[in-house]
Amino acid sequence: MRFAALGDSLTEGVGDPVAGGRRGWAALLAAGQCGWEFRNFAASGALTLDVVEQQAPRAREFEPDLVSVVVGVNDTLRRTFDIRHIAVRLDTLYADLVGNGAVLLTACLPDPGAMLGLPGPLARPLARRQRAVNSVVHALSARHGAVHLHLADPAWVEDRTLWSADRLHPGERGHRLIAARCHALLAERGLAPGAPPPAEPEQPPPGAAASLYWLATAGTAWLARRSTDLLPQLLRLAGDELRHGVRGTAVRLDLHAADALAAALAAVAPVPDQLQCAKANRSGVPGAACAAAARSGSGTTPITG
Known about the structure:
The chain has one domain (2-302): Rossmann fold, CATH 3.40.50. It is 56% helix and 11% strand. It has 14 helices and eight strands. The chain has helices at residues 9-12, 25-31, 48-62, 73-76, 83-99, 112-116, 120-143, 154-158, 172-188, 208-225, 230-247, 251-267, 272-282, 288-297; strands at 2-7, 17-18, 21-22, 37-40, 66-70, 103-108, 147-150, 299-302. The strands form two sheets. The chain has a six-stranded parallel beta sheet, with helices on both faces. It has a two-stranded antiparallel sheet with strand order 2-3. The radius of gyration is 19 Å and the shape is globular.
């Protein structure tokens, strides 16, 4: 069994350092499976476009039997965010991988604003974007028969023992939990006969001191690097949120996001269940109907501690 992992820093293994580099959930999953050959093509900061243009061609040369594609959070942090483009890229990528005989493993993700504990005007627009990405991933996972894992459930997000010092990536315990849940889903299909990774981490979870140290060192450097793209974008989104809040027109932002999602799903020839997802989103239940549709259409499970 050849397993290729595509995606961003989550799959690269940020938050799970080991001697010589990073490990992460995908490597933990592969380690317990006898006869698996594993390659990790994921890279920190990757957008969906990077996965399609840079990682996928290298993965095809590997001729994998199983491919994980977990991406989208970085897209929500860019001024170029366009849910229609994301949907079209993912649909094309999923179809190509499945068409070449690979089993597809996908996941939806928590919104970064909630993870970072951002104030409402900053958190709401990011949550809106992440819900749209998750809705697309739910719908396309169902269409392409993917093994799909829900990583956006509140219990998972709120358990701080699962997260690293940066509050945005899983810690070792979190990576182990993701690997175990993926193993359970794959085992249901007879694809992971080996043992799941042990649940208990080798290192203790980071405490408050570690989080403060990260903020003073790596966190400050990260903010400096992102000061030309992320921070101006967040300020613009927060400004829009505040203006609409003052005018009493905040619902327009939700309706605009729902319309954009409906157009994105239409652009990838949605099946009836996906159209129902878009209608439910416009009614103010973002993601809920899509999650239900995805659960009925593909192997899927929520993740909890």
